[in-house]
Design a protein that fits this description.
- This protein is mainly alpha-helical and 530 residues long.
- The chain has a domain of 196 residues: Cytochrome C Oxidase, Chain A.
- It is 61% helix and 0% strand.
- The longest helix is centred in the N-terminal third of the chain and has 35 residues.
- It is globular, with a radius of gyration of 26 Å.
- The chain starts with 23 loop residues before the first helix and ends in a 9-residue tail after the last helix.
Length: 530
Amino acid sequence: MTEVKSPLRQPVPAPVYRRGPRGSALLRYLATTDHKQIGVLYLVTSFAFFMVGGAMALLMRTELGYPGLQFLSQEQYNQLFTMHGTIMLLLYATPNVFGFANFVLPLQIGSPDVAFPRLNAFSYWLFLFGGSILLLGFITPGGAADFGWFGYAPLHGAIASPGVGGDLWAVGLIVSGLGTILAAVNMITTIACLRGPGMTMWRMPIFTWNILFTSVLVLAAFPVLTAALFGYKALVWATAAITGLSFSVWAHHMFATGAVLLPFFSLLSFLIAVPTGIKFFNWIGTMWKGQLTFETPMLFSVGFLVTFLFGGLSGVLLAAPVIDFHTTDTYFVVAHFHYVLFGTIVFATFAGIYFWFPKITGRMMDEPLGKLHFWVTFIGFHTTFLVHHWLGNEGMPRRYADYLASDGFTALNVISTIGAYLLGISMLPFLWNIFRSYKYGRPVDVDDPWGHGNSLEWATSTPPPRHNFTELPRIRSERPAFELHYPHMVERIHAEAHVTKGQRSRKPPAPSEEMAAATTQHEVRDPREK
């Protein structure tokens, strides 16, 4: 009798892991037009600039820790001040947004790629080369630009700034700014022309809406959760209102100059608090009914809300000319500026990194290290910048490299410097977490490791394939991924949406939706089956 081996008992050969030649991964990134890889390049490069700008801030805060010049001359301090502001705003904040947009936005709208892949790669290289040109000013005989990151006339002219550093600063910003403009054109075109079937404008995620409005701002200014989102349309319109009002709030920095009409620009500065308050109402309303779990992304999101709220309240004070006259050009403005920018950009950046890291790499980040990173960052930030309000109220002027011991600013400056070093230390657990998680993190074997994602990036594999989707799910609302993973909840979601709209009658479904529903309700069987 011949023994027949079951195919289930056949030995399974060990998997063969093939690695490309040494350096192939680097060459792949250098020549890539894949929007996901370009997004990673944007994120890594902008974070490298963030570390450089942060090191400059530490040098300045160390100098200001005690009265008198410690180790920097006034010229060196001005150079660090100029380059710190330029790097943080134009080489970290803006490119960092486009890094997330490159990776996430096409996934969220069901697009296989961005509208112009080669232009997308060209935009990144313009940003990198422009930033490198800007930093070359430090190796010139006269040093880097020293007229302030704002570049006011006549400080940036040939008479006040005769060195080559100012020229390199201008050329670097022109080159990197061109890359930012091209990236904005790419994002707007992608949203307008490459949305997937069923992805209407009012079904786009809020992140995509924000990228759209940010791109519009760039074009105008750069010539230079488990529960459904509460108040979705109100949040979109509030973002649009902030986009429009953003063109006018600059004037409250010039109230004391007499160059602007005080009542008009004061009113506009107050008005921007209205749509911002609507957004806070929507965010709090979303959390109020949601089943909150405080993983690291949620902690950084709450930290963003707290710091942004502080910055918004101090901005309302600065919108009043009678208060602005007292605090203008003091450290009160520095505190407001950093609460608004650090609160919105840095905390939101870390929330996005911890949230989308599994989708980008296919591995989870370490939670204890992430929470340690959050608390050290949160405490360090508020220790650094909260006391700046009091320094400004006592009259310490900003942009000064020195102060007298008799001024009474020493104690608060020491506290601020300690907080700055705490902020610097907070980067250590983050960098270790990135390295450790990328190499040895827990692998993700599901589309949505968080469990209740709404937007389309959670409806594809982790990491996504080259053209994002092997099969695009049906899009019937602004929560396509949730409806894909929890089909039994679809009718309940639509019923609740019907109730929240005040018992208004639902719009009749389109013929294509009726046909799709009919085919999904009736199972098609093979006629040969019994």
